[in-house]
Write a structure and sequence with these properties.
It is a single chain. With about 525 residues, the chain is α/β, with parallel strands linked by helices. A hairpin with a 4-residue loop joins strand 9 and strand 10. The chain has a 6-stranded mixed barrel with strand order 11-15-12-14-13-16. A 3-stranded parallel sheet has the order 3-4-5. Strands 6-7-8 form a 3-stranded antiparallel sheet. It folds into 3 domains: about 90 residues, no CATH class; about 220 residues, Rossmann fold (3-Layer(aba) Sandwich), CATH 3.40.50; about 140 residues, Beta Barrel (Barwin-like endoglucanases), CATH 2.40.40.20.
Amino acid sequence: MKLADGREVECKTAWQMIIDRVEPCTPDWAEKITWVPKEKIIESARMYGSIKPACIYRGVALDQIGWNSTDAELCKTMLRAITGNLDIIGGDHMTYPGPVVNGKQFIRDSHLQLEDKLPPEMKRKQLGILEHPVQGWPQYDITSKYYKERYGVPQCMSGHMFQPPIPYLWRAIITGKPYPIKGLITYAGNPLVYAANTKLVYKALKHPGLELHVVLEHWMTPTAQLADYVLPMQSKMFERPYCGTFEDFHSAVAVWEAAVKPLGERKNEYDFFKGLAERFGWGEYFPWKDYREVIDYRLSSIGMTFEEAVKKCIIFTPTEKQYEQINPKTGKPFGFATVSKRAQIYNYTFELLGLDPLPVYREPFESPISKPTLAKEYPLILTTGGRFRPQFHSEHRHWGYGMREQHPWPLVEIHPETARELGIADGDWVWIETPRGRIRQRARLTTAIHPRVVNCEASWWFPEMPGEEPYLHGVFISNANVLTLDEPETLDRACGNWTNRGLLCKVYKATGIDALG
């Protein structure tokens, strides 16, 4: 193409750039990486490409594979668009700000987030944004304009969409760099269990540089045991009225009333943050006297009372192919919340952030290929995705409530052939070890797993054990995050994801151990 100044430049379409990128990624290439037979890869690709509608299931596995996380998600997003399965019934649903009732928009979390009150110099202090700019202000400042233009509401910055990579938090507490972290509020979380590299987390939470640590909780967890203050919080399921949109991701809002009166001194978290804001001189941003008034305010925007909303429980605006709907202001389709108003398979935002706009595969930091010497000592691949579904994250580990009785001990899945070679029988306690430490769980033999892979359960602690140090409810005994990897150089370039799955490990029988002995 010849430019106005006479220079000639080579141009390629986004589609051609994708073809060039994926051409070397043949089924034979993928088979060597994944250990999945190429015939299965071809079969699955043809199945997804030919069945309409089709859906790629959303889960957390790809969030947890270190520096390949975002690229894997980009592949999924591109496939949805290319195959025509984006935002159709039976395909991959896109969520929109809602609900909209009689043309009126429900007040979302994003309406209340006050991002305009944070000065630019404070935005620049967000940990890790230079190294991982997508889950932070650099990305937000680019995309929020198009989001608000498209939907008429601010872009969500809550929950998982907007947080610094947590490995940077622990290192900042310990080193004081890039600046000291002196105070921490842990709300609805148990980082000694959920965060990677448990030993580092422990060191940070015990560090004298952390002058104040406040935990808002339902239980005395291992993390709560190390706090300066533990404030008992009401259960959002039972002890308080509720009105929410699941971190502002969904177009529906759920509303229900409290089922029981709060026990003891349990408070609503709104009371905590309102009180904190008033003491800092920000009370004007919390004008409602309690959380029930907040709910009334949000529902008033769609002309509904709390009592009316409770009867409905879920208020939902059905949506499908909203990008095709005509914008009455322009007479053209609304399109998507992007600069081009199209579903962009070439990620222009990534290009502006200095990232590769197309996905690329990197061999994991720890693998038989990238670390062949280490693999001789740790010959198995570890994934930490094991779950007993009712035990959500680190919840429901207490005896006497029905969940622990169904699933009393942590299990690690091992192929029978591998177990036989290692002298391990079903139900044996075994050690699972990586270069970062070792834990023990009980072996569960299954042919559903590859012979060179083991899958241990995450999020284990033992409330029945003493809470004081050094026990901390047994947080170091079976907790998979003792094994996981969070070194900054191993994190995902875009979002800072660390590695919970795809680690090198070894497994061996734990002799002389019975239960927690």
